Amino acid sequence: MRKTLSGKIEEVIYARLEPGEDLLRALWDICKKHDVKTGLLLDATGTMETVRIQRFPHESRPGSAGIDMVQIPGQLEVSAHGIIGMGWMPDKSVTIPKGFDGEADTGFGAAGFVGHETPYFHVHITVTSASQTVCGHLMEGSPICRNTWNADAKVPTHFTVAIAKVSGVILRATFDKSGYYHDLVPA
């Protein structure tokens, strides 16, 4: 049976990101600063140096679980959107899977949370370079690009995000012994 709950948009938060900032970590910091427990990444638009994503592979391979983790070099034009919730790990004995290329994970990566009751992101990002366009899940290790018009100029980047803070419902990204799933809980 389909579960539905409703909430209300309380506010829309805009932020301009700085060169070198990691997009996923910047989103986490913004949500923490503004106490966003559930919300929407309405938009993230600008240029990035490189992007790490999870995507479906071009050809299936044994042991890949049907997912590729790739790094796409820049300069890249990007557009992203997604959902924001709260990481939920009811059983402390369960550990978050390893991150990009099997590196020890801080909890970011595809899930975007660092543990129990911390901000969570499910961000789909579309990346365009001179030779390709790719869509996938945003992962940690994706830095914002310097000013593309004049790298020596002392002007801010044009990379901007818009986040809607939602009240009345909590999106819980749950990771437990049964696996990973989203749950909706009244706030």
TrEMBL record:
SUPFAM superfamilies: AF0104/ALDC/Ptd012-like (SSF117856). It comes from the Bacteria. Residues 7-187 form the PPC domain. Gene3D superfamilies: Hypothetical protein, similar to alpha- acetolactate decarboxylase, domain 2 (3.30.1330.80). Pfam families: PCC. Keywords: DNA-binding. GO terms for molecular function: DNA binding. PROSITE patterns: PPC (PS51742). InterPro entries: PPC_dom. This is Predicted DNA-binding protein with PD1-like DNA-binding motif.
